[in-house]
Every structure is written in structure tokens, then in C-alpha cells.
Amino acid sequence: MLLKTNQIKLLGLVLGLFVLLISMCASVVYGYANTTWTMAYHAFTQFDGSNEHIILQTVRLPRALIGATVGASLAIAGALMQALTKNPLASPSIFGINAGAGFFVVIAVSLFQVSSLQTYTWLAFLGAAIAAFTVYFVGSFGREGLTPIKLTLAGAAMAALFSSLTQGLLVVNEAALDQVLFWLAGSIQGRNLDSLTSVIPYIGAAFFVSLLLSSKINVLAMGEDIAKGLGQRTGTVKLITAFVIIILAGGSVAISGPIGFVGIVIPHLARFLIGNDHRWVIPYCAVLGGILLVVSDIGARYIVMPEEVPVGVMTAIIGTPFFVYIARRGFRN
Predict the structure, then answer these.
(1) Where are the transmembrane segments (predicted)?
(2) Nearest to 318 by CA among 268, 254, 245, 250
(3) E strands along 45-167, which residues?
(4) Residue 11 and residue 34: Cα distance in Å, rounded?
């Protein structure tokens, strides 16, 4: 733990918020269309209807807001999953939650030609919930009950299953393939504020509840027997935490598709900085997750300019070596 006192942790959080704000401003300014910081300022203070101002207002700004929201959501979901399962590899992507949410959205697009953002959101929640509870159920089989390694294997199996089913649907429906291919790689390109406003009430509520749960998760982390001895209703805490994870992961997938590795990398980085106190881990995950996804999205615009790489590819490039490192360390908290 690098930041030891509450004053230093608070200072670090404020600094992180400043970096996130600067990153979002850079996301608004930089891209294929040649714009400047001055032009961006004028787009929001002296709008003149030019192409550049329209791009800055209707394309770049929503993209920056969505990147910060999705990154924060996935990071918090990963931190809650790791705390709940005591598994350092737990994340919405590894446990198949993202894949389940994505599968249900693809069903809606390919079989029922659904185009409603609100419908996408609810289907993503449903798919995330089914995937999460299936992984928990499968991981609980056997004499030893629920263990980190069994959860990881069950999650990997469910992720592979949902991904295969998704690909199968798209193979027989080429029109749907054109609609969702870029989305399935994990991308916030081309999203507008309607995409964000359709899920922000649910994600905002989940953020708030996760903060309320933080002290209870600290108690639960000491062991279930100790938590029960202190009067905690552990089953209720686990169930509410699971629903928060489903809302955060499902809402993120509804906006941007299944983006991986944010939920693995950021919680470990947050704990490295400020320790295991979830009253600090959760807000740090929100800020650091937002920074990671916004910066990754900026990088994705320049790798094969004038084309764009999906931001999910960028997070995979960053996250894969980290995943291998955590896996080689073993299951130690």
C-alpha cells in the first residue's frame, strides 16, 4: 500500500479526478477530425454550427462521458466480484457475465430486429444475471463447494459457451453480423448521449449502493463466520452485491459491448495504492477505471488511423500480460 493516511488517500483521489477530467477533455479534442483545444472551448461557448463544432458536441463529448462511465462501472464490478468470491481473477469478462449480456443483446438484434436502447439495457441485465447465477451454481458443485479455482473454470466455460452461441447466431444472420460485429469487440465509437441516458439511472444507483456496501464488504472479507458473529446478514449482503455487479456489468455491455480486462487490472491497482479498505477501493476503482478506458479509447483512434481499433482490443493488450502475472502469482489475496 503506497498511500497510508486518509489525507493522502483523499489527495490521491482528487488528483485522480483531475487526471480523469483532463483525459476526458483530451478525448473531446483529439481524433481523426482535426480539432484544437480552442475550437473545443468555442464549440461549447460560441457554437457556430460548423462540422467541427458538431463533431465535438455530438460525437466526442458523448464518447468521453460514455468511456468514463463504462470504465468506472467495469472496475467497480471487478472489485466487488473479487471481494465476494475471494478470487483475484474475478471480473465480468472472465466470469462470462459480459458474454452473457452480449449474447442476449445479439439475440434481440438477430432474431427479433430489436432497436430500442431501453430493450437492449434490460436484455443485457437479464443476460448478465443468468450468466452470473449459472457460474455461481456450477462453481458450487462438488465436495469442496465454492472455491476460487472452480469459479474461474466455471466462468471461463460460460464465457466460451455464450461466445460460441453468439457466433453461431451471427453466422446464420449476416445482416445482424454487420450491425453488431464492431460492438462485440467492445467499442464506444458512434455512441450518443441516448445510449448513456438509457442506463445511467441504473448505473448511478448501483454506484451509490456499492458505496453503501463498502463497509459491509470489509467485514465480510474477514470471513463469513466472523461477519455472522458481528451480526451481519451475509446472505443479504452477498445477494445485493451480486445485483449491483449485474447492473454495472450489464449496463456497460448495453452501451459499449463486452469490454474485457478493466475489471481485473483496476481493482488490483487500487488495492496496491490504498490497501483493502473498500470504502476507498470503490471510489478509486471508479476514477482509475474511467481513466484507463478513456485513455485507451484515445489510443485506439491513432493505431491504424484513419480507421479505429475497438477500445476492447486496447484493454486486452494492456490487460493480458497483467492477467498472466496474476494467474502465475496464484490465488493469494
Answers:
(1) 64-83, 95-114, 120-139, 199-221, 242-269, 281-304, 311-327
(2) 268
(3) none
(4) 35
